[in-house]
């Protein structure tokens, strides 16, 4: 299975929701603390192709986007396929 990473920052309700969605899928993922101005945040921006908001979610090198994108993938059933659950 590919590595799953989520860049978050404290106090972000969208980050909390995205983490909950990933946790509900029973997959291992790494949560990376990436507040404004940190090297981790710059890494998330670079990897996502310019996405400046958090969360930023990656499966391998594939950028999934943020919380809304993750919710849409989940609702359509595509998230399970991406995560290797189907």
TrEMBL record:
- The answer, when asked if Disulfide bond is one of the entry's keywords, is yes
Sequence similarity: Belongs to the glutaredoxin family.
Q: Which protein, by its recorded name, is this?
A: Glutaredoxin
On the tree of life, the source organism's domain of life is Bacteria
Presence of the UniProt keyword Cytoplasm in the record = yes
Q: What does the UniProt record say this protein does?
A: Has a glutathione-disulfide oxidoreductase activity in the presence of NADPH and glutathione reductase. Reduces low molecular weight disulfides and proteins.
Note the InterPro entries from the entry: GLR_AS, Glutaredoxin, Glutaredoxin_subgr, GRX_bact, Thioredoxin-like_sf
Which PROSITE patterns does the record associate with it?
Answer: GLUTAREDOXIN_1, GLUTAREDOXIN_2
Q: Which UniProt keywords apply?
A: Cytoplasm, Disulfide bond, Electron transport, Redox-active center, Transport
Q: Which residues form the Glutaredoxin domain?
A: 4-62
Which PANTHER family did the record assign? GLUTAREDOXIN 2, GLUTAREDOXIN-1-RELATED
């Amino acid at each position: 299975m590919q590595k799953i990473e989520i860049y978050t920052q404290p106090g972000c309700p969208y980050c909390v929701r995205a983490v909950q969605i990933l946790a509900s899928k029973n997959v291992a993922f790494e949560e990376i603390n990436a507040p404004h101005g940190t090297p981790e945040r710059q890494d998330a921006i670079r990897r996502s192709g310019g996405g400046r908001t958090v969360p930023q979610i990656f499966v391998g090198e594939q950028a999934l986007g943020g919380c809304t994108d993750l919710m849409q993938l989940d609702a359509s059933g595509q998230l399970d396929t991406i995560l290797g659950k189907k």
